[in-house]
Amino acid sequence: MEEQFEPPSGTFTSDGSVVCASGTTSNDTFGTGFQSNRGVIFHVRKTITCNDGSGTFTLQLQARAGFNVGDMTFGPWIVLSGAGDYAGPRGQGTVTGTSVPGGVIDVYEGWLELR
Fold first, then answer.
1. Cis ω before 76 (30° cut-off from 0)
2. β partners of residue 13
3. What is the chain's pLDDT, residue by residue, as a tens digit (115 residues)?
4. Are 88 and 113 in contact (CB under 8 A)?
5. Cβ atoms 51, 24 nearer than 8 A
6. What is the Cα–Cα distance from 83 to 24, expressed in whole angstroms?
7. pTM, full prediction
8. Distance of alpha carbon 88 from alpha carbon 28, whole angstroms
9. CB 57, CB 46: distance < 8 Å
10. First to last CA, the chain
11. Which residues lie below 8 Å from residue 14, measured CB to CB, with a gap of 6+?
């Protein structure tokens, strides 16, 4: 997924084996922990919308940016909900990211099961 910070959205591609091959994302994000002057934890609800009209699903994930170390670490993701062909999904995994100007490129690993 290639995400931009403003507006909080992006695009994604997959191999198409479980979910659609491409689509868009929108993010609802808030941060905590910045008062420590050590870093901030971003809590993200990411809604993925398939370009082929097959449906949407929402993931929850976390990322941490350290003020002193300058690195961003990404944590686990879980599936919260789905609609259309993706109603009732289950799944979890990890996400890693590479910072780019104005955003981040994420790579998701794990499992996703459609009911």
1. no
2. 22
3. 667 667 777 889 988 888 899 999 998 888 787 666 777 788 889 999 999 999 999 999 887 776 665 556 677 899 999 999 999 899 999 888 777 887 778 888 899 998 7
4. no
5. yes
6. 15
7. 0.80
8. 21
9. no
10. 24
11. 20, 21, 22
| Cis peptide leading into residue 7 (ω within 30°) | yes
CA distances from 1 to 83, 88, 97 (A): 20, 22, 9
The label of the residue with tokens 């062909």 reads: 85
The tokens for 89 are 């999904």
49 and 23 Cβ atoms separated by less than 8 Å:
yes
Ramachandran sector of residue 81 (left: φ over 0; alpha: ψ -120 to 50; beta: rest): beta
Residues 30, 16: Cα–Cα separation, whole Å: 30
Token pair 């300058």 in the structure block, residue: 70
In the block, tokens 């990322």 appear at: 63
| Structure tokens given for 83 | 């609609």
Give which of 28, 27, 29, 23 is closest to 84, Cα–Cα: 23
